[in-house]
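One-letter codes give the sequence; the integers encode the fold. A sample entry reads:
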Amino acid sequence: MFKITLVTSNYDNSYTFNKICKNLMEEHCGDFEFSFFKSNAVDKSDEEYRKLEEEIRTSNIVYILLHGGVSSFKKFINLKKIFWGSIPFFINTTIDDENREFVEQGGVPAATVYNMTKYYTLGGEENYKNMILYTASELGNKKYPYEKYTYMRWEGIYKDGNIVEDEKNFIKKIAEEPMVVAILFHGKEWNSKRIKVVDKFIEELKKLGVAPYPIFTNSILKPEIKSKGIKWVIENYLKYKGKVIPKTIINLMAYSQTIFSEPGDGTSIVEKSIFEEMGIPVIQAMSTYQNRETWERDIRGLDSEALTTGVYYPEFDGQIISVTCCTYETIRDEYGEKKIFIPIDERVNKISRLAVNWVKLGMKKNEDKKIAVILHNMPPRNDMIGRAFGLDTPNSVNNMMKLFSKMGIKTSHEFKDGNEIINTIIKGVSNDKKWLTSEKVLEKSIDRIDKEKYLEWFSKLDKEVQEKIEAQWGKAPGEFMIYDNVFPVPGILNGNIFIGLQPSRGMEEKAEEIYHSTDFIIPHQYYSFYKWIKEVFKADVIYHVGTHGTLEWLPGKEVGLSDRCCPDFNIDDIPHLYPYSINISGEGLQAKRRSNAVLISYMIPALTLSGEYEDIEEIDDLIKQYYLAEIGKDSKVIDLKENIIERVLKYKYDLDMNITEDEIRKNYSLFINKLHSYIEELKSSVIKDGLHILGEAPVGDRLASLIHALLRIENCGMMAAEEAVGKSLGYDIEVLKENPHGHNKIGKTNLMILDDIRNITIEIVREILGEKKYQTIVEKTKEYKIIDESYILILEKNILEIVLPKILETKKESKSVVDGANGKFIVPGQSGYPTRGNINILPTGTNFYSIDPYKIPSRASWKVGVKLAEELMNRYIEDEGKLPKNIAMILYSGDTIKTNGDDIAEALYLMGVKPVWLNNGDRVIGLEAIPYEELKRPRIDVTLRISGLFRDTFPTLIKLLEDAVNIVSQLDESDEINYIRKNLKDDIEKLLEDGYSFNDAENLSKVRIFGCPPGTYGTGVRVLIESQQWETRDDLGQAYINWSSHAYSSNYHGAKLENMFVKRLKNIDITVKNEASVELDMLESDDYYAYHGGLTAAVKYASGKEARSYSGNTSDPNNVKIKSLKEETARIMRSRILNPKWLEGLKRHGYKGAMEVSAMVDIVFGWDATAEVAEDWMYDRITEKYVQNTENREWIKENNPHALMNITERLLEAEQRGMWNASKEKLDELRKIYMSIEGDIEEYEE
């Protein structure tokens, strides 16, 4: 008897194999035995795995046939350890490099594997049957008659249920059609699994008046199976006489067609999209492997396999991510369960409408096009119009107006600058309710949406959605933002362009509910705004400008949305473009996946060194004098020491360094070295020099400073700029860093030499862009000379040939804006931090994508994660004298993407677990425990608070982290070296006492990943702070727990387990969040205080004590740093916020520059409210610099008077809440200025 054990995924041809095997057993009575297993069932059930092991032991061969890689089959590693080399394995996955490895290692002769692979790849009942007979003949004791494999038709044109035979005439005829939409689907499915879906698309497209053009292909060129591949299809089916036939493509095929277009490959990302040359939009229509019932109720929208194959990979091609178009349904018969895809009719209609609208956008005359440009306005105040990370939004929109006008879009007015756009909006109707009256709305709104019109739109919403909106916001049209029974339309018209303000979520109105509820749907006015854009203004295209708005974060499925999801019924079928910061990866993907957006990446702002100013310059000069005096045994050293101590205390540096005057005097030599290091760190900190304006590259000194920042560390094989200059001067930078306080004969420490090299480097970069007189630059110093100019010449070559062209190509942003308005394809590209060794992601202007989730953590990020963990533990030992037992980490999706998983690696290493990678690559196929003998320390318990975006983006990593907990919990180790196992035992014991079953108690005890409820985002904290609906820090901690206690694991998807979350928090020793780039810091985003600050408040509320809270810094992966939150706050305060350079940079940007100052005050306040990190001197200095300083105050008032009002109001609130012990003089002046500006604004608004 020949026995085959088959392990298949949910998505493979198990039905066909069942049928064949049954027939073979009947045909060859007693000769064959088959056992079938599903990989996911084996992963979930120990009993199922045990059965599989038993079956394999008596098998002649094991077939492992997986849709996806072996990384999706977690128990494979166990099987490999037990059976590898003793039982033959035939493994075929959709990852070619895995298949190649297993040909060599699977125990089946290579020639046999080749033929088996050919049978399997060609597919179909006959080939599968003959594959089994061939296998048995080759590996068994009996020969069976088998046929040679038969070839199927892989490429063709589909029409009316059949393959088109006369292709030449068909192509000629369809090429004459004015509006053609191609439908691409897989060659295996032209008459099977997905054909009902194809037929439905054909039907819908015909109804919409366009010619459908259905084409099937195998994607990959494989001469051995006679498949021609996607490249051939493009040249021979999608073009006629060199001209592209369709105006848009709807793609039903999974994975990346670009990757597959490389002959015989499927393993790596190629540089150019296969669709780029065609220049037309390609829309990915996703399939879920869930059935209809599951999909309807499941908040996830797509299963994890479909998320990877139907979203991640197609994004590499620059495809537009749409919605789920079909579900996977079961048909049962005598052979078992047959699976086919059934269309979701309404979703097919939506995708078809979207495709047709992209076609129309490309065909319509520019003079007839209407464009909606949406500015974000969160919070909904008049100082925050056009809020976007790193972008001068008003001036960027003004640039867009010029581009649109140039291409022929009708405009009625040419704006002078961005300030004029904002002022025009504010003098009309905005979102700021404080300044809105019925009279103003009726008089100045560009249009009014009356009750009758809105009720007509509202009635078309899904009944369940209607009920939910009315339950929260009252019977339509409600009362929020409605004036005399009409909704205003916030924004202005400029010819055929509408510049609008994205409406308020209204959560500030519901702030008191944040403590006990997490379920907030949009108000009526939000929906009315987007319906007005579609139905009244009739926009052909929408641009949301800058990172980021609220649309893509509204309630609904996480991806693969339905018509009941808020983002879906608001954006509807309008083509959607979205300029987005290249270094905010995760949030950009959210816009792509939840609002069908095509991103246009924009450049990071220019960066510069913080340098010296005011007290930093004063102390730095004294330190230099001190070292010089000390080495020369100068008597002035005593006076200098006292001067330094006096200034350190005067300027509160003792608070930054957490040191007392007694401690300073007790060990002054140690202190002066630490102070010297700190001052140098402040001077060398990288800060923003203004903001980016869409389509504009920096020039002059700003360009030189940006180049220096891009080459601050090694970047894509290019030596760091300072390292190159150091070598040219005869210094090794790393040697100097290793002994920072060593000094030369004239009293210069190595830190001072490093500072000199840094300053010389900046001058040399300027000179590279100028006259290239390097000797002259160095000779000016009189202390240094060029010993080996070759290093500078290499730097020159790198800058002029690589770095500079990439920066100058920022103009591609403008091209993409225009291409989008013309309905053209936007080229894909990578995202991330260009200053972190990733300059290859430039130039900007691309529709950026994510990374392969199965390659996290990468080998490189594992090394960084290990360093992070070790530095964190060492810092805690330094602070507390012992190792931490319980750590809470914040995990962001964007950071995970941009670092390839540093934080994941850190969490795993803390637990004492490491990844198992495939071959020498980065594909993670499992985990294994690090033996205690190697680890040499206890395994630390890690609780993870994930963002909502992480939940949506990385279900694979949630499972990976859960697997780590499971592995550690099963180790036979003592409580003293395995804190996770100890905590699990204690939790289970308590839960059993509380009446839980053992199974439930075990599942609950293992939960370590918590987040906000499914379909929601955030922590609830920001809204409370902005609305002032809180009294104490405990209130914020309580709200954080309410929003964060939702568990994520194999057993729970968002179940609220508040008791378990609070139990975890009670024992937390450390909270930590890592920052991976100099391009942003923790005081630049309200998300940071909402997540990490909120976590510190929650730990204090739950436990009654403060945890140690740290910020990790991996901006240089080779030099990982850990600081306390207070230390990091002080560093940012001194290097950026109080730095004249930062303000001068912002002054170039008028309204938006002043907004950045207002936002900074909000964020400092938020951090202090949640984590108590701001000292009195910080509030004092902010007040002095931005309010009491007449020149700065007048600049803010002139450009953004509402910003000045918010700054003064927030500072007064800090004093009223006891967060700031302000002097009477400061308070009196603040109140006086507040009253004055409020009066000025009232006049201005009128």
Observations:
- DSSP finds 53 helices and 36 strands in the chain.
